Amino acid sequence: MTQIRRRPDRVGRFAKARPLVGKRAGKTPTDEQLERSLRALATQLGEPGELASVELRIRPSGRSRRAKSWTFQLTPQGVRVTSGASSRPTLRMVMARDDWWAIARGDTSPIDVFLEGRIRMIGDCSVAERMFHRIADEGVVTV
Fold this sequence. Notes:
The chain is an alpha+beta fold and 143 residues long. 28% of the residues lie in helices and 23% in strands.
């Protein structure tokens, strides 16, 4: 059996998102900080120019809480984020709270998290790619 090991040269290989929160926000988000980061994402997406519904389901770090979902309604005029799941999203993304927070702080790339199997995507993944291109750090090559 072949074992796959993470290669150190892969770290930081892909572009990161522009930070949605300040670096002083801490390593573990409060519910309020999490909510603010999602609203900041909607603001950074601006006017995507397409119609889509993206559900982001965030699993808790501890055992005491249930996963929470937010839905981003993308329209040519802008993005609206609401708390709660979508009945038929164009794309559903599921990840751990710590992974979302690392992306929101600009500490890691969503692509790296995806390639490491820590984000599950169900639906039209090209929507996620277009979203990432809109929020990626300028001057950094993305895939």
